[in-house]
Amino acid sequence: MRGEGAVRSVLAGVGGYLPPAVVTNDDLAARLDTSDAWIVERTGIRERRIAAEGVLASDLGAEAARAALADAGLGPEAVDGIVLATSTPDQTYPATAVRIQAKLGIRRGFAFDVAAVCTGFIYALAVADAMIRTGHGSTVLVVGAEVNSRILDWTDRATCVLFGDGAGAVVLRAGEAGPGGSGPGLLSTHLHADGSYADLLYVDGGPGVSGTSGHVRMNGREVFRHAVAKLSAVVDEALAANGLDHAAVDWLVPHQANLRIIEAVAKKLRLPMERVVVTVDRHANTSGASIPLALAEAKADGRLKPGQLVLMEAIGGGLTWGAALLRL
Ligand code: COA
User: Fold this and answer.
1) What is the per-residue pLDDT for 96?
2) What are the domain boundaries of the chain?
3) Cα 38 to chain centroid, rounded
4) CA-based angle 252:253:255, to the nearest 5?
5) Fewest CB atoms within 10 A around its CB: which of 150, 175, 194, 262?
6) pLDDT for 78-102, tens place per residue?
7) Residues 6+ apart with CB under 8 A from 244
8) Backbone angles phi, psi at 216, to 5 degrees
């Protein structure tokens, strides 16, 4: 726990952006050997958004960042840095974060990408928090933006039905912890990785191995098994690190990969589904964008209120996994 007077990263604004084109399960069933019933039963996914040709992660990310800045009541001139979670960058380099920076008209501060696949937003949040607490800037945009549709094998029914495109962003601002660590801000972040599981979920291309961008490959059953066990452990770790009980959590805002994984973690936390923010039915898995998109939705519809405790968790390729506890 971070004590009184310590610098803390406070959530000042949230925003999301989804490309307009909706692709339903029935749309996929028209061109693949799958069905709405199979996809809904195994994953809870009903539809996803797909970016139009030529629309890049930086386009989606810049829209989400604009929305988050507007929610915070800030202009781009306030931004000291951008940390972007993406696994579908515009180009190998420069970092897509600098494309977002340029699209926002910002010409100062830092901007870089974090690659931790579906855990990317938790990693980016942890990095941005560390940058704020070590004085690299006081207002940092943390963005998650993905065009997963560009790296899917649209003939592989076991993977292509699971993912979607989108972006979300938050504005973190330096604040100060109150007496006894009270007051708003990120309480802690918890990051894990185990590369011995790298081949359970990977993209079979890249400048090193093939010179092409490649396609998503996954052992779904194994990823599912690790997801439930590792997410249950990391949420316990986050609560224990802050001396908090499961009952203190107002909202679970999980990475949105699969409704069955989300329900399993909620059950372990003894949290009713009314206190879990779910978007996977409409967004599918948007990798690094799913948590900020869910936060944006819950903020916009009035569910998130000052003083509440938000628990975020994610797992993804790597395997990487992590959690963050945030007081609103
Ligand atoms: N439509 C219809 N059938 C499908 C299908 C689809 N879209 N995808 C796979 N199947 C078939 C398989 O071919 C298999 O058929 P077979 O028994 O004839 O070989 C059958 O369904 C069962 O496949 P299996 O992979 O064992 O199913 P599952 O119950 O494990 O569910 C997932 C598959 C992918 C939904 C599930 O494993 C999962 O959600 N895993 C986690 C994936 C994830 O969230 N990854 C991202 C983490 S960030």
Assistant:
1) 98
2) 7-179, 183-327
3) 25
4) 125
5) 194
6) 999 999 999 999 999 999 999 999 9
7) 309, 325
8) -70, 135
Q: What is the CA radius of gyration of the chain?
A: 18
Could you give the angle at the alpha carbon of 26 between the alpha carbons of 23 and 28, nearest 5°?
A: 60
Per-residue exposure over 19-49, b if at least 16 CB sit within 10 Å of its own CB, e if not: beeebebeebbeeeebebeebeeebbbbbbb
Q: Is the CB of 42 under 6 A from ligand 1?
A: yes
Sequence-separated (6 or more) residues with CB below 8 Å from residue 82: 65, 97, 100, 101, 106, 109, 110, 111, 112, 140, 141, 142, 143
Buried b / exposed e along 84-113 (16+ C-beta atoms within 10 A): bbbbbbbeeeebbbbbbbebbebeeebbbb
Amino acid residing at 160: C
Catalytic site residues?
Answer: 118, 255, 285
Residue 1 has pLDDT above 60, yes or no: no
**43 Cα to the center of ligand 1, angstroms:** 9
User: Which of 40, 224, 234, 321 to probe ligand 1 with, by most ligand atoms within 8 A of CB?
Assistant: 224
Checking if the pLDDT of 117 tops 60, the result is: yes
Question: Which pTM does this prediction carry?
Answer: 0.97
Share of residues in the chain with pLDDT > 70 (%):
99
Query: Per the CATH hierarchy, to which homologous superfamily does domain 183-327 belong?
Result: Thiolase/Chalcone synthase (3.40.47.10)
Cβ-Cβ contacts under 8 Å for 301 (sequence gap 6 or more): none
**What's the whole-number average pLDDT of the chain?**
97
261 φ/ψ angles, rounded to the nearest 5 degrees: -70, -45
> What pLDDT, on a 0 to 100 scale, did the predictor assign at position 3?
66
* Position 4 pLDDT exceeds 90: no
The class of domain 7-179 in CATH terms is alpha beta
